[in-house]
Design a protein that fits this description.
Order of helices and strands: EHEHEEEHHHHHHEEHEEEEEHHH
Organism: Amycolatopsis acidiphila
CATH topology of the domain at 212-314: Enolase-like, domain 1
CATH superfamily of the domain at 212-314: CO dehydrogenase flavoprotein, C-terminal domain
Distance between the termini: 55 Å
Keywords: Oxidoreductase
Helix content: 25-40%
Strand order of the largest sheet: 4-5-8-6-7
Number of strands: 12
Structural class: alpha+beta
Strand content: 15-25%
GO molecular function, one term: FAD binding
Largest sheet: 5 strands, antiparallel
Domain FAD-binding PCMH-type: 1-212
Number of helices: 12
Protein name: Xanthine dehydrogenase family protein subunit M
Length: 319
């Protein structure tokens, strides 16, 4: 880790006035600093800023500095969010990591984290060795010839499924962006991962009221049961009326370069009977446009099976 200056601004205004890299829980940033992937000269500890609170009066508002563990355990949080958070990390990390930091965490691609190898995210134009290299964990959706790294956040998948927005503040003022629009596909600029402008902070996450999201879940498939990133995950919420699906929300992770909403699957589920056959029919369109690599073609079938499993769990094992 290279030397850096650390300050702790006392207000949001003071934080925005100082150039530097923001530090909240540090569970991602500090790791990347130790690896010299990120080498900031000035780090701003923002933990004392008034960006906390969980409000369920009208939908759900979560302050960006709320800890993952506290949000997961809050009684007003939709099950899909709570389960995504609980599946994200160990208890120790959940007690430290912030909601805003979780949404901004960087990919776990081994080439990105190894400064001895090329990586277009880390050094634009240097290349993407994962395309022809070790790519079992990499994306099959939303990829480009410049990057195939998966997005790491479980929470972001659940929030995208629920049409969440993020509140942002910066020198130009406040703005709100849908989380699905906040993340950017790699295209030919994989180093630009989101719509966060220089000096901006995430201040809160806003989830619109959705009464039927009480019937929701998050299924995460991984190589080991704990402290592991997803091979595939599915965030699903269902509105069931008279044994038919009136509406559905489906997003997936572990298979795409950004949290991946599946409107085609949602459309196929609407007005369908609550049966395993309906679930399998809907999931059959989940991988449209997928581009598997040499070692991750299994993610195509795994994606479909993960969605069916999540739907099955929500409907008490429908036949």
């Amino acid at each position: 880790m290279r030397p850096f200056e650390l300050t702790a601004p006392a207000s949001v205004e003071a934080a925005l006035a100082e150039p530097g890299t923001f530090l909240a829980g540090g569970t991602t940033l500090v790791d990347l600093m130790k690896l010299n992937v990120i080498t900031p000269h000035h780090v701003l500890d923002i933990n004392e800023l008034p960006l906390r609170g969980i409000d369920t009066a009208d939908g759900l508002r979560i302050g960006a500095l709320e800890r993952m563990g506290d949000v997961a355990g809050h009684p007003g949080v939709y099950p899909v969010i709570s389960r995504a958070l609980l599946a994200s990390a160990s208890q120790q990390l959940r007690n430290m990591a912030s909601i805003g930091g979780n949404l901004l965490q960087r990919t776990r691609c081994t080439y990105f984290r190894d400064v001895a190898t090329p990586c277009n995210k880390r050094e634009p134009g240097s290349g993407c060795p994962a395309i022809a290299g070790a790519n079992r964990m990499h994306a099959v959706l939303g990829t480009s010839e410049h990057c195939v790294a998966t997005h790491a956040s479980d929470l972001a998948v659940a929030l995208v499924a629920l049409d969440a927005e993020v509140g942002l503040t910066g020198a130009a003022g406040n703005r709100t962006v849908k989380l699905a629009d906040f993340y950017r596909l790699p295209g030919d600029t994989p180093a630009v991962e989101n719509d966060l402008r220089p000096g901006e902070l995430i201040t809160e996450v806003v989830v619109p009221r959705l009464a039927w999201a009480a019937r929701s879940t998050y299924v995460k498939v991984r190589d080991r049961q704990s402290y592991e990133f997803a091979l595939c995950s599915a965030a699903v919420a269902l509105d069931i009326q008279d044994s038919r699906i009136a509406d559905a929300r489906v997003a997936v992770g572990g298979v795409a370069t950004v949290p991946w909403r599946l409107p085609g699957v949602e459309a196929a589920l609407r007005d369908a009977p609550v049966t395993l056959a309906s679930f399998e029919d809907a999931a059959s369109v989940a991988a449209e446009g997928a581009r598997p690599l040499s070692a991750n073609g299994f993610k195509i079938s795994l994606l479909k099976r993960t969605i069916v499993r999540a739907l099955h769990e929500l409907t008490d094992g429908s036949r």
